[in-house]
Amino acid sequence: MALHQKATDDKSKNARKQGGLVVKTLRTTSGYTQRDLAQTVGLEYYTFISQIESGVGKIPPAKYRVFADAFGVDVKKFVRELMKFYDPDTFEVLFDASRDEPTDYESLK
Question: pTM for the complete prediction?
Answer without folding.
Answer: 0.83
